[in-house]
User: Which sequence fits this backbone?
């Protein structure tokens, strides 16, 4: 039987790295770990009609972003390393420690992969909000859809949810394309 206590306080990533979440460094960050982790995490704490990954959400935000599509693609990357905590709970004062850790990891990701960071031309917040509305009207039960106004967008609702493998593949492809454009 393997010794499960060989690296206490660390997680093992998809690529085999042992990562101390409290003391992460840029060397711990790997785009394959991010793509893999996000492709297996479901949006809305899994409380939707069908599986919809954070990786697909990230691709949608990047597509909707008016500037800095790489920043938009990577905006939820910390979630690849951390557990999913629903937004209402995450923003509770008791979770300030978690927000700090998430912010630190997100900052490491941005500094490693986003050439313009921290001097971006804009924010992904508007694209993230528009994506949320599109997703809400696409993957949530019909009786809850009226909680938010339908976005005024050209995207077809409901859209097709990708499998985890497709989400991972498309996330990596988008990352590679954006990386090439920035060089």
Assistant:
């Amino acid at each position: 039987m393997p010794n499960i206590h060989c690296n206490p306080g660390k997680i093992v990533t998809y690529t085999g790295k042992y990562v101390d979440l409290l003391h992460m460094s840029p060397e711990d960050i790997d785009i394959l770990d991010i793509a893999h982790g996000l492709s297996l995490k479901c949006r809305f704490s899994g409380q939707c009609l069908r599986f919809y990954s954070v990786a697909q959400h990230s691709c949608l935000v990047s597509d909707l972003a008016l500037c800095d599509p790489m920043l938009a693609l990577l905006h939820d990357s910390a979630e690849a390393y951390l557990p999913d905590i629903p937004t209402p709970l995450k923003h509770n004062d008791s979770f300030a420690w978690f927000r700090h850790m998430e912010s630190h990891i997100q900052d490491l990701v941005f500094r490693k992969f986003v050439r313009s960071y921290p001097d971006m031309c804009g924010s992904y917040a508007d694209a993230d909000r528009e994506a949320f509305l599109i997703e809400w009207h696409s993957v949530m039960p019909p009786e809850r859809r009226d909680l938010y106004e339908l976005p005024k967008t050209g995207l077809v609702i409901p859209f097709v949810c990708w499998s985890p493998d497709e989400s991972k593949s498309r996330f990596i492809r988008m990352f590679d394309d954006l990386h090439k454009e920035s060089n």
About this structure: The chain has a mean pLDDT of 89.
